[in-house]
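Researcher: Please generate the 3D structure of the following complex. Treat every line as part of one assembly.
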Amino acid sequence: MAVPTPTPSAADLADLSHAASTLFSLDDNHAVPGVDYSLDLQNPVQTFGGSGNGRRGPVDRSGSRLFRTAAPSLWHRRSYKLFYDLLDNYTADTSVAERRTQKKEAEERAFLEEVMRSRPMRFAHSLLAAKGLAPAAAAEFAGALHHAWFSTYTRGDTRDSSCGFEHVFCGEIGDPDGDGKR
Amino acid sequence: MARSGTRTETGRGERGVLFLLLSFLFFSSFFLLPFFLTKPRIHALFLSSQNNNDNDAKNNNRQCAGLHSWIRVLEQEGKGNLNYYGFVPRRGRNAAPVAPDDKVLTIQFSWDPNPSADPNIVVTKELSTMLVGSSPEVEVALYSLFFFAGVEEGSLCLNGNDLRVRVYKIRSKYGDKIGAAFVESVSGGDGGGGKPRPQQWGSGVTRPQPIGGGGGRPQGGRPQGGRPQGGGGGGGGEMPSCGSIIVVLLKELFKLLK
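Model: Done. Output below.
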């Protein structure tokens, strides 16, 4: 909280792309390649542009892992740890409804609280509030964030089988729904 | 003249029989309609084997959706659930080669989130673009910004890389939710455009109404018919039922008999 909330400039308020770039530059908690993690890219792969019958599927062209190293100190960072705690909260299969528990909800709230404290999110909040696109009060905005990211909805044919956080960050497995969204 | 006249008469007669026969076949086929539409097996029997192939493909071709977090990839790889296949090179003449310190990476992998499950499902993801090294909070903040702005397809310039940001919403009367969110590399090297046009802010989203000061608790368990929007729909909801078709046909038949 010692770091002051970055104030959006006129360019940020006029141009969303500019605002997004500014937001990204405020990430003072990013991991540094070669220090916090290192990648082993290995070989390029071919893409086929969708999957269909009779199409040759993807081929494994890399024998080793992508992440050669990851510093254990990453998990000592609060937001990384809280994010990690959320990863095992969901069932990837979209034909299975998610089971909500008190523990999961507490983990979600703890993570969002930490995100709300970060510079990028405070910047995003001040922008959205200035534009009248989100509630200005922090508690109300946190509630709106929780609804957007964690309230469940139907994916595939199963009610409450998905939520935004699960889909975007954890990934899901389901029948192809053919809407082209990845 | 006479010969031609008789020929036309017999022609008419044949046509009449043919007409009766065809109309009988046509109308009788309607009585079989319920079987075709309600019993998938009978339906499949009469149609070509293509239908069976489709069903097989549907069962085996389960897909990986989402998963755009480098931390998730790191975690799943560490658990042995994710097998990295390789990276996808950038397209475009002047595109920079993919490097291990890139902030954005497109990769291919196979994924088995639950190896101990009995029908073990392994899926492959052909293209997954993700930010690498970014903190969880900046990713949540970025996607939230586009979501609340109501912009589903935006852009972002990151270290000289032009990225497309896509945030798709699930419409809900309880307040819109995030359906999908990811970044994409824009194929570089075209270079002819000069400065990109500024991105307009959108008109926002439908927001949940705060309940008694509790801060908008989600309504868990309520039927919220959210489909990823834009999906063709293709519902059978507007088709008349087989029963109604038969009732109408029978009514028409009675009218004709009267």
